[in-house]
């Protein structure tokens, strides 16, 4: 294992990057590493600001430009340009603990079975913490991702992308065979997500494990504009909207040699079950309550987004299933 490439993907991140970059300059490391800042079609002078801030430092850094908007595009840009074996994705509003990179490097070097490794994000609020955050905040990429350190017990397991390490060679074995994400990824106000989960699924299909370690601590800024229930509903809708595109992975975890007929049977079962759940929830709300609570709205939005995702993405997901079968 020859080192770590830290990758920060940012769109108009000039106002929030300084703290993130200064924390990276303080990181401890006994190995080679680099910093790649991917400017994803920014219009606020992000690249010039970053270059100015880092110009007097001694670290190995590069600023990359990805003209096509979208987080997944920026992440792939950084991956392709990286020169080390392990990738560490740091959001432009994260600050990594001083020992973060060293702990991750040591764990992945001592345990070659690790394909991806995640840490624990601590929220830092620009304004008052919402009353609902402690219950629902995990969707903002904060909080513990497992009870114990080591391999995550769920199968398939998944991590949030903020502060996550990935073994590059595992991802490249799919990308070099023509793999393309089945998800559109986040762009602008579009919150459809799941590419973090998709990468974790690929890694496990390749025979590697997903690990968590509580010592990997970072802060994650919670902007005032996102700390409201309306934004959270949109966020959950976006997450649930990726369900249909991830169905091929669920099927291949059951049987890597699953044939088309069995896949279609699984799609029909999932779609029908999702539709029934949505209708039952709708009827329960209509008949059971005069006042619709926030939790009712949340449940209805998630169920509707999942149901719609199975229907709308049926054909693309089927083609993705066939492509995955040919490369795993």
UniProtKB/TrEMBL annotation:
InterPro entries: Glyco_trans_2-like (IPR001173), Glycosyltransf_2 (IPR050834), Nucleotide-diphossugar_trans (IPR029044). Gene3D superfamilies: Spore Coat Polysaccharide Biosynthesis Protein SpsA, Chain A. Keywords: Transferase. This is Glycosyltransferase family 2 protein. Residues 5-139 form the Glycosyltransferase 2-like domain. SUPFAM superfamilies: Nucleotide-diphospho-sugar transferases. The keyword RNA-binding does not apply. It holds the Pfam family Glycos_transf_2. GO terms for molecular function: transferase activity.
